[in-house]
């Protein structure tokens, strides 16, 4: 993409100047005062989730220059992020300071889930939060592989609302309305959706029984399909079924993945063939996007 769009030199300069494999002193100070971050994870198939985490300043702990940790509080029980990490330890964290410095920090790395008792046994200085809804059930430790800046130019400047105006936050509540209720009207459409059916897949979380692929369906011993093409038809013998988090084998999976990759790359090539490097607005005032509108 960099070569096609003419950004290789600029990207190399960014890699060389800004991307570290650890948290330097200023990054550590930045992390220690953050009250929220955005978290990206994916399961073993590449199915993604993004989510939001928040807590009091310092809820993300810098254990050392190459390791940080954050607590998992009691939530809705779906455990989507932790479920993903159990299958795929790679994650991405984005912290943004909207109120003071208007700057962001990316941290990419490998994660491990640790029970609260084990975490406290190894790190005696961890505080015990007095708020029940902010007491960690478990922790995620992150081995830092990349740490780099998120530029300020599109970050809005926000201001904190005084505590007496914003009201108390309902940490750990199970009250439906205090958690947001049916804000988006999803429950009202429940009758139009397929019924939720829990499958035998051990790492069941957000997508439930409605999302099927070759590995998940193989647990039930049936043939999965992608479009009209069969994916695999070999049921797993329960005596040799993989352990929690392991990837089951399905006949034809490797060929199927290669076909998908080839199809994906072909689509990328067609899109890139239509793309043009972005020029400064003053050099091309009629520019209105990445593609010639006649080709859309």
Automatic annotation (TrEMBL):
Top-level lineage group: Bacteria
Segments of skewed composition (Basic and acidic residues): 279-296
Disordered: annotated span: 275-296
SUPFAM superfamilies on file: FMN-binding split barrel
Domain Pyridoxamine 5'-phosphate oxidase N-terminal: 25-143
Pfam families: PNPOx_N
Protein name: Pyridoxamine 5'-phosphate oxidase
Organism: Streptomyces inhibens
């Amino acid at each position: 993409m960099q070569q096609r769009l003419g950004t290789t030199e600029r990207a190399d300069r960014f890699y060389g100047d800004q991307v570290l494999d650890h948290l330097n002193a200023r990054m550590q100070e930045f992390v220690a005062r953050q009250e929220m971050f955005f978290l990206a994870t994916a399961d073993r198939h590449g199915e993604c989730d993004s989510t939001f985490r928040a807590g009091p300043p310092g809820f993300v702990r810098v254990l050392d220059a190459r390791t940080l940790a954050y607590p998992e509080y009691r939530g809705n029980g779906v455990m989507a992020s932790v479920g993903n990490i159990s299958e795929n330890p790679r994650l991405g964290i984005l912290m943004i300071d909207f109120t003071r410095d208007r700057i962001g920090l990316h941290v990419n790395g490998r994660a491990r889930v640790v029970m609260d008792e084990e975490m406290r046994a190894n790190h005696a200085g961890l505080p015990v939060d007095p708020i029940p809804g902010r007491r960690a059930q478990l922790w995620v430790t992150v081995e830092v592989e990349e740490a780099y800046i998120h530029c300020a130019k599109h970050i809005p400047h926000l201001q904190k609302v005084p505590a007496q105006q914003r009201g108390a936050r309902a940490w750990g509540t199970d009250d439906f309305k205090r958690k947001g209720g049916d804000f988006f009207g999803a429950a009202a459409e429940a009758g139009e959706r397929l019924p939720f059916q829990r499958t035998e897949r051990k790492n069941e979380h957000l997508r439930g029984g409605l999302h099927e692929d070759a590995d998940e369906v193989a647990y039930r011993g049936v043939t999965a399909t992608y479009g009209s093409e069969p994916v695999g038809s070999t049921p797993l013998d329960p005596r040799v079924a993989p352990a929690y988090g392991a990837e089951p084998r399905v006949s034809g999976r490797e060929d199927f993945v290669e076909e998908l990759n080839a199809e994906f790359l072909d689509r990328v090539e067609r899109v890139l063939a239509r793309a043009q490097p972005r020029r400064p607005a003053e050099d091309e005032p009629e520019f209105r996007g990445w593609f010639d509108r006649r080709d859309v």
